[in-house]
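Run log, item B.
One chain of 878 residues. Sequence copied directly from the ordering sheet:
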Amino acid sequence: MGRMNVSPMMQQYFDAKAACPDALLLFRMGDFYELFHDDAKAASQLLGLTLTSRDKGENPVPMAGFPYHQLDGYLAKIVSSGLRAAICEQVEDPRQAKGIVKREVTRIVTPGTVTDDALLDPCQSNYLAALVPTGPSDGDTVGLAWVELSTGQFYAAQFAAARLPDELARITPVECLLPDEVTMPPAVFTSMLHTRRPVWAFGERSSRELLAKHFGSHAVEGFGFGEADGPSLRAAGALLEYLTETQKSSLAHIDRLVPYRTGATLEIDEATRRSLEVSRTLRDGRRDGSVLGVLDRTATALGARLLAEWLVNPLTDVVAIDQRLDAVEEFRSGATWCEDVRELLRGVHDLERLLARVTTCRATPRDLGGVVRTLRLLPALKAKLTARRSALLNGLEARLDLCEDLRAKLDKALVDECPLVSNEGGIIQPGYHTELDNLRDLASGGKQWIAQYQTDEAARTGIPSLKVGFNSVFGYFLEVTHTHRDKVPAHYHRKQTVKNAERYITPELKEYEERVLKADEQARGLEQSLFFELRNEVASAARRLRATADVLAHVDVLAGLAQLARERNYCRPKLVEESVLELVGSRHPVLDALRPDGTIVPNDIRADAEHGTMLLITGPNMAGKSTYIRQAALLVLMAQIGSFVPAESATVGIADRIFARVGASDELARGQSTFMVEMIETSRILNTATPRSLVILDEIGRGTSTYDGVSLAWAIVEYLHDQIGCRTLFATHYHELTDLQTTLPRLRNLNVAVREWKDELVFLHKIVEGAADKSYGIHVARLAGVPREVLTRARKILGQLEQDHLDEQGRPKWTKAKPAAGGQMQLTLFGPPEHPVADELAQLDVDQLTPLAALTLMAEWKRRFDRTGNEEASPHPR
């Protein structure tokens, strides 16, 4: 683009664009935001703006724009597309500017740095993350930090590199910062923007210094970090540097960096979250229909976000869980009291995000109105929480700061319905500030005089249609239609001609105009200054207000869980340290909420030393196997966040991890088939599960040939039983696996009850003891509408296959394996592999073999084979 002989304003544009070349520059010009050159072309496509041009001639400049009051809507479109927007504002009053109006980039908005309500989901956190991968010399760890700019939450941690996808799935950042030098698999960032930053922004020394300066401490060790936490602090420093660069305002609301430590929460990997639809549905990624959507009975945005945090970070400490359950139980038992609390909470505004806008100097008068309305509710809420039985509720009541001094000042200062902008007045109540009252009286009196002046002049001139008007160019004027032009007095000075009328000014009108406008302008300016003072007062109380917001969020979540338990008739689970699971009359929480009452068949689930820790569930498709194993995992998850559960009774042994391999999926972008994804996820389970884990597996081995699949499923069951010993629910169509009950003492067969009636298959959705006698696959195919000829042929083939694979006693022809540890015999699927010694033995003529020849052969075989049965590479004996 040419830059010869550009105007001063366009030079401003080029300077601003050079400061943020990777963002769409929204350049404020009067009442519009304009985009130029390539930005204009991109915006016309993305935002649906009309593409025009500036300086029409040989080198027209592409241009597109929109009115300033539509900024939020267009910013939302830009950010949701994963792009950045730089906002270049007029930073001085055009009426007072000498020459061109000064303009500056006041902030850069990216998906991870938005703070405006219009751009945020009130029920969901909006995390910006940064990561610093390390090499093998550092143990292949990743330093990870994440911050929620709209609330001030700030965390940092270190993880094994292999856990990065799981941690990102837990945090779900919308944007992630990476050092320029790092190459990461693109698939890791499929759902977020990844932003490259210079390597120096991740320096350890500079990061430590920046963090210490921001938090006003000599070192970050006071927050619980040590020398070994370098990678996580580098990531945290890069985040703070990025926010400073993009926000260009105070970040005082980010007042603490919290070290995130594993072990205190139940671990759930990415595949499990997806399979169980914890926060989003598999089909369309929506919150509605997920477990979170069903559990959420919160009354505030604060509570909704906290519940989401609880659900992705369940507790593993029995004492902490029981404290939550005590609070939920107290709310549940006091229905009227609980509803009173929830009614108060419905009036609470989103204090966390209001405070973020206050401390970054972007809060509007209406935002302060939300703060004071929330503070007004606190005394009544505190009274409702006083003298409760639950230790947690008592602790929350003690922490609830009423901020009475701040509330009193805001109550006295602010009008009941504050305006959206601060420069047009209407913010401060009468009686709050004497000088402001005087200016208002003068301005109001002048306007009344003008109204009377219009009446008097109409009578004096005999022009009944005469009226006094005002515009920003000419100020006040007298307007006379052409019909009465001959009646205009000589002392009227004509200022403007408009259609069908002339406009005039008189010395008397001009004098009063100056007095009125000056008073009105001074009043608005003073009122804006008073608003800024109030905003600073709120900012100075931010720490207290944030603690209060945290209390409100906790009370909201606990009361919401109690409301859910009462509505759905949930029971309080008993949490124990032993590896047990006993759910009587349990129901799937999502189906229980979405299906009509009475249509869900409850089921018992028992996995313990007495009943067996491994449950093998067989039965036809559509009968409910997947639902059964999912509800086991979901009820454990609910119990460990402190929720009641849909069951008649529940005893839950604390799980350190939940693994779920349910359903088919592929990763075509990574070149991975459905079966490969299945095996990768299964491998992770087998390599990381512990005896305290809960594992649910559905149809393992179905993505390959029948023999391969059943072999893998068989071996996986044995490994989970013998090597890990965790609670496992394994749903399968491989009926051959049911024979494992005879060799694996902790395995128990269950099946989904079905009935055949008049050649129809009836699913009872009830889990009963024992193995299913057949899979009913052909019945299900018939229900799906498969042609009759195909079904008939399938029955004949099935009969032949079953006959070919049965022995004389009607049992599968599986061969036995070597004895397992402890002398127990295990079954294998196929006969022994071919072996050179076996081949030579088969060819020997034993009748002609002498004892000496037999000894010679045995010595030769011993020389050729080591103790593991592998033929030695060397022909010489060791």
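Observations after the first pass:
- Residues 666-671, 815-831, 871-878 have pLDDT under 50 and may be disordered.
- The CA atoms of residues 34 and 65 lie 4 Å apart.
Flagged for discussion on Thursday.
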